[in-house]
Amino acid sequence: MNGSEVWDDESANEPEVIESSDSYPCPNCGASVPEMGMAHFSFNKPAGACPTCTGLGTMHEANVDQLVDMERSILDGAVMSWDIHYIKRNTETLLAAGKYYGFTFDPAEPIKKYGPVQRDLFLYGAYSPQFRRHYPDVRPPDTVGKGLFGGILTSFLRRYEEHIHDPNYREKMEKLLLQRTCPDCGGTRLRSESRQVTVAGQSIVNVSRLPLADLADWLERLPQVVSPEEWIIAEPIVDDLRGRVRRLVDVGVGYLTLERSSPTLSAGEAQRLRLAALLGSGLTGVLYVLDEPTIGLHPRDTGRLIKVMRQLRDLGNTVLVIEHDLDMLRAADYVVDIGPGAGRNGGRVVVAGALAAVAACPDSVTGDYLSGRLSIPVPTQRRPGNSESLTIQGARAHNLKNVTVKLPLGTLIAVTGVSGSGKSSLMFDILDRAARQRFYGASELPGEHDAIKGWEYLDKIVTIDQTAIGRTPRSNAATFTDAFTPIREAFAATPEARQRGLTARHFSFNVPGGRCERCEGAGVLTVEMHFLPDVQVRCPACRGRRFKREVLAVPYRSHDIARVLNLTIEETLPLFEDVPAAAARLSLMAGVGLGYLQLGQPATTLSGGEAQRVKLAKELGRRATGRTLYLLDEPTTGLHPADAARLLVVLQRLVDAGNTVVVIEHNLDVIKAADWVIDLGPEGGEAGGQIVATGTPEQIAQVEASITGAFLRPLLTA
Fold first, then answer.
1. Is residue 115 classed as helix, strand or coil in its secondary structure?
2. Within 13 Å of residue 248, how many CA atoms lie on the same side as its CB?
3. Mean pLDDT over all residues of the chain?
4. Are the beta carbons of 614 and 589 closer than 8 angstroms?
5. Can you tell me the distance from the alpha carbon of 439 to that of 629, in angstroms, rounded to the nearest whole number?
6. Of 269, 274, 311, 304, the residue nearest 289 (C-alpha)
7. Which domains does the chain show, CATH number per domain?
8. Each residue of 682-697: pLDDT tens digit?
9. CB-hemisphere CA count at 13 Å for 99?
10. Predicted TM-score of the model (pTM)
11. pLDDT tens per residue, range 535-564
């Protein structure tokens, strides 16, 4: 496209309008409006989507601080991606532009000293609205030689759009981008006409932003605020909507809003949404299988979920739940306990029957905790801390209500509250992002707050969340924690390996040398299926063992390298007890409850809780400074009470070394073991975001307004 074509195509910037052959007078103001259907209120449909952001609600803009060094001049390398040839060519174009428009342009001047005209041309280009406002009546130059400069930021965004379908390019470039709210729709994603339609004074945008619990209340009030004529039309729709919303509230997601995007939902939230949909289906004779539905649920909401499951059962269905939560187990009609241990020590039915039978079984670890024979003890005393603190002032991100909270350093801190009360907003959106900016120069902006005081008492932050530790099957717990390196070195040190001239490199399946080159060490081959998902088959060359024959012929204590990778971590420990580096890392993984994992189990098959504990084991293997802040998001997810007890020992060990550990947690056993508790709420969504109580678990238990305290009280007085 040439310059004149761009200049003449002014209609491309005009707002899109809704076209309809049928128009009707507005009953309120009399203006002629087109007939609108459901599609006009969906940002996924062209009829309803904002034309500026195409229904996304956000727009990308280039991060100028990552692209341009404002302290330098163009000649000194202000543009980080320009080499000497680009500097020479673009300098000539910018000088020509200054001559064309009649202003001076000095390439030796630091960018920060540019005037508005020079700055807008340099950043946005000759055809941009930012620059054209300075010369509205001057036609931009036709060629680069005459001064047609595209602009640093504009050109970058154009290249990004051209390669947006390439995931590798997109991932590489996204660190140079910032997201901003769409200026036309304000992030609502709908076009203006759709946002102006109201029901009882509320637009669809306002209704979509209500927490589901508040939406249920609004729907109940609706018959009293609309006219009888309007209610005749609305009644069947509202009745159906009431039932749908009430089921969502009953499964414990009443704090969510309708506009909440699916990618931001946790696994537990997504599962409970599907459960609510099933509850409304009215099906009978169905077997429902749920995998740990209490993940992310406060004990108060667990009770609601149990009620929903009983409703499904009473409809004539069978509900099978894989669960560790003791309240859920106590509510079950029949319990099947698998064990007695994990991994190869498990796989047997220890006991099956009513709750009393499981609790009475002496071989059942689950029964030990159900009966009270085993429990996580309450600490005899709480740590006072090291007298220093980290204070977050004026936190206002998302639903937080301008709160100020103090974190005593040198303690184990539990951040509690019902789902949606603001825990993640406070700890991850504000504290974690601010810490990453301070210690690591991260570009992601923290959530809105006034200040954080006390950074000088810390030297780093370690955030251990539940994101995957690897995106390919080549990554596993052993490689991630560096436990595999000393194991490979142990194999390379054997007489057989030396005789064959094999080094530690040959015992790696990630690099050429000793790996099977047919499958490149993956053990499987991927077969592309047209119109179907890809299929993986075992490699016929190595038969899934990943290595060449000469490598597999080298034994270490009667085990070849492929067999070692198939062992569990607990089975591997005695095998490498004489290799200190390997034994130390393997012991740490066993200590956080991962002893049942196979050493070579692909990272892609690990759950979020398992991935988090692998990260924790890796951090425990680093040299401790005693001035580290650890942030963990529900570390007991997926853990049996016995494993939660082991994990607590590890966390307490970190604090004993002088560090500070902050856990966002619903598990009452972890909360009662903490030195300090920060309880948010009192509810979720807009009804949350406040500090309900802070103090020791005993102090929290005495606060009547604390829902967490009410559940904590009997555990501390038992």
1. coil
2. 21
3. 87
4. yes
5. 12
6. 274
7. 1-196 (1.10.8.280), 262-371 (3.40.50.300), 389-468+624-717 (3.40.50.300), 477-605 (1.20.1580.10)
8. 987 778 899 999 999 9
9. 11
10. 0.71
11. 889 999 999 999 999 999 999 999 999 999
